[in-house]
């Protein structure tokens, strides 16, 4: 269990504590969302394509799993590869062990919740 030292240190604290559960206000999730999308917009075209594809497959994976299925064939291979190359680095910003995130204190935009699920 950990309590953040303050907003400027939150990502460093999370990397140190490696939380499995996170209770936060929408601002933290929005900060990560904005950071990733800024990175996508400013990176080279190859990385931009890989990041966009990883997020799109992540969205598809969530939808398939909600219906009791799982990705198969080529998509499963792509997901595993892109997850290791791209999404693992994003999860590392939260300590790499986060399983569930809770948001409270204000409304959280649906696109941010969908992004976090991916």
Indicate the structural class.
Answer: mainly alpha
Distance between the termini: 25 Å
Which stretches are low in confidence, meaning pLDDT under 50 for 5 or more residues running? Answer: none
Number of strands: 2
Output the number of helix runs.
5
Describe the global form. globular
**Rg (CA only):** 15 Å
Question: Helicity level, as a percent range?
Answer: 55-70%
Tell me about the largest β-sheet: 2 strands, parallel
Instruction: Estimate the strand proportion.
Output: 5-15%
What pattern of helices and strands is seen along the backbone? HEHHHEH
Strands ordered across the widest β-sheet: 1-2
Average pLDDT, rounded to a whole number, is 88
Q: How many distinct domains?
A: 1
Description of the molecule:
- This protein is mainly alpha-helical and 118 residues long.
- The chain has one domain (7-117).
- The chain has helices at 10-17, 26-42, 45-66, 73-92, 110-117, and strands at residues 21-24, 100-103.
- The protein has a two-stranded parallel sheet.
- Helix 3 packs across helix 4 (73-92).
- The two termini are 25 Å apart.
